[in-house]
Amino acid sequence: MSRAKFAKSAKLLFYRYAAWLVDRHNTPREERAGGYAAHREAAAQRQAAEFLSADAEADSAVRRILRTRARYEVQNNSYARGIVSTLANDTIGTGPRLQMLLEGEKLNHRIEHDFYLWAKRVRLADKLRTLRMARCQDGEAFAILAQNPNLRSNVKLDIQLIEADRVT
User: Fold this and answer.
1) What is the pTM of this model?
2) What is the C-alpha to C-alpha distance for residues 3 and 85, in angstroms, rounded to an integer?
3) 156: alpha, beta or left, given left = phi > 0 and alpha = psi -120 to 50?
């Protein structure tokens, strides 16, 4: 007898024995059918699984479903929302600070101050915090460095956040 046939007959024997035990204790048939059907369905799903790698399994449709479920969980579960926001706040804090170590003290201070003003104008800390939350919640986060002529600064560089659904 092949190994597959033996496993199938052993499984069948186990189910019959389990049904006999349930009948012996006078459990209603409706309760038995629900448990057995659920077990049989779960076993069929396990046998049908392809066991691919994480990269091969996570195509765009699977990622979309995972993002939707994760977003739902973060929106409706206060523990998940707290974990995501705490992680983002602890990682980003008040935002990055530039520390120049050139020889000129005045030049260092001027560059650091200009960076501080630019970061404040483009709301860099808020955008980085949003990116960190999206990375934790959605599994991926995207941003583009783009020119923004509306910035009242010498540096017209800005960060545009991209929704993960637009990328895939």
Assistant:
1) 0.64
2) 52
3) alpha
Q: How many residues does the chain have?
A: 168
- Give the integer Cα–Cα distance in Å for 131 and 18: 52
124, 117, 121, 128: which is closest to 150 by C-alpha?
Answer: 121
- At 88-110, the pLDDT tens digits run 999 999 999 999 999 989 999 99
User: Could you tell me which residues come within 8 angstroms of residue 137 by beta carbon, excluding any fewer than 6 positions away?
Assistant: 67, 70, 71, 74, 84
Q: How many CA atoms lie within 13 Å of 164's alpha carbon, on the beta-carbon side?
A: 22
Q: How far apart are CA 155 and CA 116, in angstroms?
A: 12
CA–CA gap between residue 59 and residue 77 (Å, rounded):
26
DSSP string covering 10-50, please?
A: HHHHHHHHHHHHHHHTT--HHHHHHHHHHHHHHHHHHHH--
Dihedral angle over CA of 26, 30, 31, 36, nearest 10: 110
Inter-residue contact 100 to 111 (CB < 8 Å): yes
